Amino acid sequence: MITALCLLLSASLAFTPAPSDALRAKMILMEVAQHGAIDRSVGVNDHGQCKKFQADIFSEAAKGFGLSSSPDVSLYLPIDHADVEVSGRPVGTCWDMPAASAGNPFVEAARFDYDQKLSQEENQAIAAEFLQNARAGDILQMLARYTSGGRGTHTLMFTQPYDPRLTVLHWADSNFANRLIDGVRYGIVRAYQCWDFQEVAGWLASDWHNGATLYRLRDDVVRQ
């Protein structure tokens, strides 16, 4: 009996997820749980706004987690757009990224910037290659022109990794679709977004100063 219990314990320990994976899973589950919710999205600090929604979800999910290098610092998702003078990139394509010691547990995993020396078709191919880096739990910040014809910034979280066998990308977000209630705009949480892979690449390649950055949790996330 003791031997059997030891084997069961060893098996459970072998499948214990890394803290960073556990945090990613928690983020995704929390966004799925809010599918269909609507929240005010007029101001940048409203929960319904795309980037504020992601920051609020992360703040809640990150309770009980920290970084091994800065165990006493609370984690947060940095969402302030980087100034063009600092980043050299159009505003909305990337964030101002503080150091991990300040509580930032994310790193840049990949970036896309429209190359004016190349054709739109060539840029779309590069954008598609960029999107192939997507993993579940990654956060995407982008400036693009969308299928609706509207152009602007958007923040989302991938809920599934890129799969070369499929032709779609899966993510969760808020305010990509919105609704007016008594003249006030409210963002709608949609946790089951599914878009054609090449269509999304086309959004990024539709304008010469579009761009995007993929952010990923650091591997040294720990449980507190």
Oligomer: single chain
Kindly report the spatial arrangement of strands forming the biggest sheet.
1-7-6-5-4-8-3
Percentage of residues in DSSP E strands = 25-35%
* Helix share bin: 25-40%
Biggest sheet layout:
7 strands, antiparallel
Number of helices: 6
Rounded to the nearest angstrom, the radius of gyration is: 19 Å
> Can you tell me the overall shape?
globular
Order of H and E elements: HHEHEHEHEEEEHEE
Overall number of strands: 9
Question: Structural class, from helix and strand content?
Answer: alpha+beta
Taking the alpha carbons of the first and last residues, their distance comes to 33 Å
- Low-confidence residue ranges: none
Mean pLDDT: 93
Summed up:
The protein is an alpha+beta fold. 29% of the residues lie in helices and 29% in strands.
Overview of the molecule:
The strands form two sheets. A seven-stranded antiparallel beta sheet has the order 1-7-6-5-4-8-3, sandwiched between helices. The longest helix is centred in the N-terminal third of the chain and has 15 residues, at 19-33. The protein has helices at 2-14, 19-33, 50-61, 84-87, 120-131, 197-204; strands spanning 38-40, 65-67, 106-113, 139-145, 151-158, 168-181, 184-196, 211-217, 221-223. The model has no long low-confidence stretch (mean pLDDT 93). The protein has 224 residues and is of the alpha+beta class. The radius of gyration is 19 Å and the shape is globular. A hairpin with a 5-residue loop joins strand 4 (139-145) and strand 5 (151-158).
